[in-house]
Write a structure and sequence with these properties.
single chain; mainly beta; Beta-galactosidase, Chain A, domain 5; 11-stranded antiparallel sheet; 8-stranded antiparallel sheet; 39 strands
Length: 676
Amino acid sequence: MRAIVSFVFVFVLGWSPTSADDFSVASPDGLLRAEVNVSSSGLSYRVFRDETLIIRSSELGFTFLDGTNFEADTNRISSSRRAVDETWEQPWGEARFIHDIHNELAVSIPRNGVADETMTVRFRVFDDGLGFRYEYQAPAGRSLVIADELTEFNFAEDADTWWIPAGEWNRYEYLYEKTPLSKVKLAHTPITMRRSDGIHISVHEAALVDYAGMWFKQTAGTNFTAELAPNPLGGKVHTTGGFKTPWRTLQVTEAATGLLNSHLILNLNEPSRLGDVSWIKPGKYVGIWWGMHLNINTWGSGERHGATTANTKHHIDFAAKHGFDGVLVEGWNVGWDGNWFDNGDVFSFTKPYPDFDIKALSDYALEKGVRLIGHHETSGGVTNYENQMAEAYKLYEDLGVRQIKTGYVANGGNIVRKKPDGTVVNEWHDGQWMSNHNIRLLELAAKHKLSINSHEPIKDTGLRRTYPNWISREGARGQEYNAWGSPGNPPSHTAILPFTRMLSGPLDFTPGIFDLLFEEEKPDNRVETTLAKQLALYVVLFSPIQMAADLPANYEARPDALQFIKDVVTDFEQSIALAGEIGEYAIYARKDRNSDDWFMGGLTGDNEQSKELKLDFLDPDKRYLLQLYRDSDDAHWRSNPYGFVVEEKQVNATETISVRMAPGGGFAARLVPVSD
């Protein structure tokens, strides 16, 4: 194993300013710089890249529910600095080793007129961006309620911006809009922009723990503020004895691929708290899921019930035959009958329907070298779920289940939390209470050696580093929208996701649909991709657990395309974004963590793309067999989605390959070392 080297240098400076002080910290390469100003009138910061102004003077601080603001005692300011250069190892991921190199500035400011309260503003500046957060020190018993953050992002100029709305009913499941930044009103993060000079910027947050999620709210023009998700108890965040906020992050790069190759969000999270996590297993799965979206099966019981013992055995047999690790079964537990969207207080997470023999099926799966994947849909009834989690997780552990797909299908602001007296409080998916729910869930799941794949989740903020059993999540408009009505996801959608949602972490998009037209089941709907693009999704949209989402019969009908899904891995030694532009195309190369194989994938939006791709990432001392799965020359998502070619040839690191990606198309490739 490669040695992990860490260098940390720390020094502290004391300050006795008179009226105002400026503090500055630059990235290790010197190109990115943050300046912090502290004065009697308030706190602010600016950001420059190579002397180009990125963020104009922007306010920092809080207002509290008691009507007071944080006012600085400018006579007692102190600061400290650190330079960090270390490499740490992920137990699973898009890359095994993550390089963390940054410079840090922490400015500590006592609160004027309030004893024993101090706010530290900590900036960490990397070559590809920065993060800053507030660390508030207060006596152990002192209660504080944050009414609002004053954090501003005042951008120096307008920019093309890709974004989805915040504070609306459908959580994060919207198509991305492209507008000028000045037209954005209230958005979720990550929100990504491209300036006229080509600088790319993405705003997000890291390490969201015991705090409300941040929405991105326009105040005027290109000026924005950190709007915190609402709290039904008043204010936005309730805390006792001080707090740390999430990091507010700005990724700033010259090229779009710079965003894709950044590990800033992960580096701003704390190391793992779970100890030995060898029980966490990346892999691929199939499941009883897509048939419900096509109206072939139902979640609820009855003659078309999908989660039957016989149907599950069929999927287990298919998984064992083709090397899949798991079988997801939705609709197995009591509570799905009727309008399950409203069944948050009805679901049982331990009682199966009579036609689903969970013990016999788990035994059958284990005999075949496969595991059942658990499923817990809450319909937003989170208190009902928390009341059953301990028993449900114990059941899954006893059955040999190792992963759970959770679901929080409820409109935004309609999570049901019940107080001990039975009073209902409605929470937001990204509010403080749900932030804490997810941590409670992860810690309990870890005790039972269970990994969590959250759907309808809180946003990803890199907590997979601290809790590696948070193995994937949804949090975007996924594959199922292609079966729900016209239009589905347009070709550009998956060419935008790498530069927006994917900057936050893994996405369980559920790729791999081979029957693209649903001519029998839903003839008015379809998937707006080519067949080759469905394969490309396995490489471009990273997740350590990937679903082969289509029906087994559709895979059996196309064994040539199925072969790539069987071969592609989900856990990587290294990942490189080779090329891409937001909404147009994205191309990746990823090396298998457990072999010398490489995988490549590229996909397009609405327009055809032809690219010459260097293979200089390969080992120069090896030759490789390139197995290429591509669009045919006449392929097009609309007119010829099944135009598909499989080719093989030998290549080495000095060569390039030519790929044509059709409109709504793509390619996938495996590169296998060969001997002379």
